[in-house]
Amino acid sequence: MNILIVGAGGREYSIGLAMKRDENVDKLYFAPGNGATDELGENLSISDFGELASFVEDNGIDLTIVGPEAPLVDGIVDLFIDRGLTIFGPTAAAAQLEGSKIFMKNFLARHNVPTAKYIETDSLDDAVKFIGTLEAPIVVKADGLCGGKGVIIAQSADEAKVAAADMLSGSSFGNAGMSIVVEEFLDGYELSVFAICDGKDYIVLPAAQDHKRLLNDDQGPNTGGMGAYAPTPLVDDEIYQKLKERVIEPTLKGMEDEGMPFTGVLFIGVMMVKGEPIILEYNVRFGDPECEEIMPLLKSPASELFYKAATGNLKNIEIDFYDKYAVGVVMASKDYPYKSSAPAEIVVDKILHDDLDDNSHISYAGVDRGDDGKLYATGGRVLVCVGIGDSISQARDRAYMLVGQVHFVGKQCRTDIAYQALGNS
Ligand code: AMP
Ligand code: GLY
Hints:
The protein is an alpha+beta fold. Helices cover 29% and strands 27% of the residues. The chain has helices at residues 10-20, 49-58, 69-73, 76-82, 96-99, 101-110, 124-131, 157-168, 237-257, 290-294, 302-310, 354-359, 392-403, 419-422; strands at 3-7, 28-32, 42-43, 63-66, 87-88, 118-121, 138-142, 151-154, 180-184, 189-198, 202-204, 209-210, 213-215, 219-222, 227-230, 263-273, 276-283, 325-332, 344-345, 347-348, 360-364, 367-369, 375-377, 381-389, 406-407. The strands form seven sheets. Strands 3-2-1-4-5 form a five-stranded parallel beta sheet. Strands 12-15-18-24-21 form a five-stranded antiparallel beta sheet. The chain has a four-stranded antiparallel beta sheet with strand order 6-9-7-8, sandwiched between helices. The protein is globular and about 60 Å long. Bound molecules: adenosine monophosphate and glycine. The site of adenosine monophosphate has 13 residues, from strand 7, strand 8 and strand 17. Residues 210, 224-225, 283, 287-288, 290 line the site of glycine.
């Protein structure tokens, strides 16, 4: 089977690694890929969806997998389906679950999926009135895609009013903020739960926990995610069952009933509040860096999972995962998340160490290959060091041993990934 992966991050690299382990996969392509995906397959510099579909037709590509949300919201799946091609991901209509927070909140409310109390509005007066009914902190969200930055956790009612006014005037997030959601703050711990969906049926993947803040102890600014681990012991069978019955099944049925069946990855951002899962948000793609830990745990052939989901056949497969844990530590460049940093050569020590070689690897993200053939960090989140083990602590130790072997100027990482599962050990 020939496979095209759309995207350029560590998430797409890790899907590529899972495909490399799969003997059903012949040729891999990435569009556009990054400076390291060229070791797994061929990078294509084609961004136009129509041109990409033509490449797929001309090169006998059997399955396209879309990593990031932007092409999904922009309709890549619709175009490929119109051309009779097999593609894994939701249509533009179904991708509204991520593309519009107002659509998502109203959908959750219509289908009785538990979520924070909210209003959606484009009126500052209404926003101010609702803010007056809430206790601080208060959450203000721009409706549209803002590259993960459109959520303000205001520490006072006044701060919430300013955030709402800035969004509604278009000054903070342009058109994406012309409508907003204001909602109550949920106090608890966050989980990332993923279901691979084929429109009707679904497979729940091992639940993960991300670490969104830049610094240890969940301090500092929000980022795309500084590290994750899976499966997390913070989700037990009872919580999985609640998520299936109260969240995933009503969502799939609701999307089907409303004429936009959901195919692809349903990423459920969960806040556990007093033992109950409350939904913060949906995304319509894998989390990054969560994907980098979940993919290595997949024992069944990755191509089969994605192909069967894309063709509506999940009912007929068994998917197995290794009985192991994975911990991923993000190494970011010096000025992340504030600004990009100057390119820096990446050097990985070649230490002979069988245990580490067999149980850890790097998923590359923000990297370019220089004319000299070397890899350079190009800013943002550069790579993820992933350790695998029989326990979370063993996986964590292997991930950090690998971190110690990776060098580039200005590298930064958290040193406490998986702390909620391990205590502060
Ligand atoms: P979102 O893009 O909606 O996931 O929001 C980004 C981050 O903001 C989430 O991962 C949470 O850490 C935080 N957040 C969003 N909504 C709430 C809420 N209602 N209560 C507490 N934290 C929230
Ligand atoms: N790691 C969180 C996200 O991908 O949105």
